[in-house]
Amino acid sequence: MRVHNFAAGPATLPLEVLEQARDEMTDWKSSGMSVMEVSHRSKAFVAIAQEAEADLRELMAIPANYKVLFLQGGATGQFAAIPMNLTRGPDAVVDVVNTGAWSKKAISEAKKYCKVAVAADEAASNYSTVPEAAALKLTPGAAYLHYTPNETIGGVEFPYVPSAGDVPVVADMSSTILSRPIDVSRFGLIYAGAQKNIGPSGICVVIVRDDLVGHARAGTPSIWDYDAMAKDGSMLNTPPTFGLYFAGLVFKWLKRQGGLAAIGERNRLKAEKLYRAIDESGYYRNPVAKNCRSWMNVPFTIPNPELEKTFVAEAAKAGLANLEGHRSVGGMRASIYNAMPQEGVDALVAFMKDFQRRNG
């Protein structure tokens, strides 16, 4: 029986895509081989990669002066790759907005390669808020401004795109990519781990403006050099072929859903229903300021923390899986990415009401 999987990542995937991959698993396009056995240098697989890129460009309306890379190492690998490509040496300064766990990781890694100036730090609210746009303290001449549009663990989401003038804006969109339309031209670089809205773990998508490519620092490993990877079509080394194939299937699924405008409206309605159930319950609580609540990751608590394990266990028996909060914050968390159907949110809301009736 398929459950409703509320995991933050690796996350639920579209059933339709899973079934297609299953049907093609041992004999892809009558080749007599699995797609995982096809050479990444073959014309057949190169076509898969090129079509995936073309579909992603169409979905996100990516301008022609941006490169699209499918890299390994996840978003965490980009915490190092970005300063290696976008700064000229250890004395360079980058601005970073600290809104939680993933921002902190980006700061820690960047410090190995350059100087980091914290443009804003939301520690005072226990990372339940984002800074006002006008409150960002930007460094003149910074190499870039980095922020995390959606903090997966804390469930905090920016309601705006920061502006830094001529300084490139860099965004870790692991939890928000493809969840709604965005204006790519407002960013110098976007990166995202695949395991939430793109496909299985193993790929990181990097969308980088042309003028930021070709300036990697001496000593940058070739697999982290955007120019080297772009020239080889993201295949300087053997790519995660199954992940790239599956991502391509997801992109086509998104197009069949009506594109990002349609999926964005679905995501908005799912989030609104779940937050409304929390706010009106008098029992559950979401710790995030209402103006910056995530559409994708919804943390919540109950008055008696001793009942959290009971909630998670009973929910799992009801077919609602992986609702435990991150180990660093506790509570519960429902991740409702693109592939989570409205029916899953409806089932969770019904369970929450029943649990409150029995335990409130």
Descriptive account of the structure:
The protein has 360 residues and is an alpha/beta fold. It contains 9 helices and 13 strands. It has helices spanning 15-24, 43-60, 74-86, 101-110, 226-231, 241-256, 259-281, 308-317, 342-359, and strands at 4-5, 66-71, 93-98, 115-121, 145-147, 150-151, 156-157, 169-172, 189-193, 204-209, 297-300, 320-321, 332-335. The strands form 4 sheets. A 7-stranded mixed β-sheet has the order 2-10-9-8-5-3-4. Strands 1-12 form a two-stranded parallel sheet. The longest helix has 23 residues, at 259-281. The chain is globular, with a radius of gyration of 21 Å. The mean pLDDT is 97.
Structural class: alpha/beta
Low-confidence stretches: none
Number of β-strand runs: 13
3D shape:
globular
Strand order of the largest sheet: 2-10-9-8-5-3-4
Q: Helix share of residues?
A: 25-40%
- What fraction strand? 5-15%
Query: How many helices in DSSP terms?
Result: 9
Compressed to H and E, one letter per element, the order equals EHHEHEHEEEEEEEHHHEHEEH
Mean pLDDT rating: 97
Oligomerization state of this entry? Answer: single chain
Largest sheet features: 7 strands, mixed
Summed up, what is this model?
The chain has nine helices and 13 strands.
